[in-house]
């Protein structure tokens, strides 16, 4: 059978992801895998209608579609996302209808589940028959057990097509009919004092988003800077070239305005608001390009100790995957998420009140430098990066390694010698039955809170 492989790597054939595809092709020579380099050729796909239509024809005549991509900042690359936008913009969804499909995603497992959720939902929106997904670590092809499972994944896909198996949808269609928001705001204006506030948006064409941004700005005495990504000179998305790995120097460097804006304006802000329109389960391709290009900082947080807010036009409550991506982005950066405001409210006054509340909370929490404890979303991601940079990825990510050493990111548990000695002694004692009984029956619960009780009872602790 003929399978079209839609390659989401900007590096084209020289990508880790494609090595998994080549391995499948080698082992299943009876099937033809036609690889189309989507992300690498996105500009041609955008500008050359005939080329785009040839891709659609190849998909139309195929037996199945395999979406194969590396992970780029929580989902797929901006170039791949642009291709997805073009499918909807050019009314080509019928080409994908009822095609059997699977996903192959390579990464180091940093939020690979959000990338898979995003692509799975897109496949459901395209009314495809979603069979399965396979998300190995980028170097898992070196392991025999993973290779065996990869072949089983491929066989399952081929068998599903041949036998026309029934597949289940995981994501319901997204529906959004917002009010036409016009602000009725009458609250007292807030004093931002010496706080630098910046709003970054991808477009002001959406009237609701434009009006929400305007109402938010009117909450303050001071003038609030708005940066439209459409006006910012960004030559292209992240190429995955890893030139930044040595010293955070991007291959684009002085070729556009991105680095200057990020380093001189965004980093200097105390309060950052990202504003955009939800479309096809994410923000726009322009927003994705902006976030992807932030990878010139590689795996080192670069927007720490900010207060973040999101103003979004669209059905965020129906796209929890996007909410988790944005929450995780802020937490991993080492900043504090104050909240989201969307145009999902029933009345203008409700939306007014929530925009004002967001503005008020951003100022209040920035003044006292409040930051709630980081959850799994931020902690797990940072620990994963810590282990990868310490090990396999120390080269080429030399800049990360230097930063991690400087900021004590390498906080491996084996360095905690006091706890190691205590654990060794207690484990040894527990080999004696009557001591083990005493510890587990009478000592563990009081012991767990002993150090905390000292702090609670110490009047000198501030």
UniProtKB/TrEMBL annotation:
Residues 1-99 form the Flavodoxin-like fold domain. Keywords: Flavoprotein, FMN. It comes from the Bacteria. Gene3D superfamilies: 3.40.50.360. The keyword Flavoprotein applies. The keyword Flavoprotein applies. This is NAD(P)H-dependent oxidoreductase. It comes from Vallitalea pronyensis. The lineage of its organism: Bacteria, Bacillati, Bacillota, Clostridia, Lachnospirales.
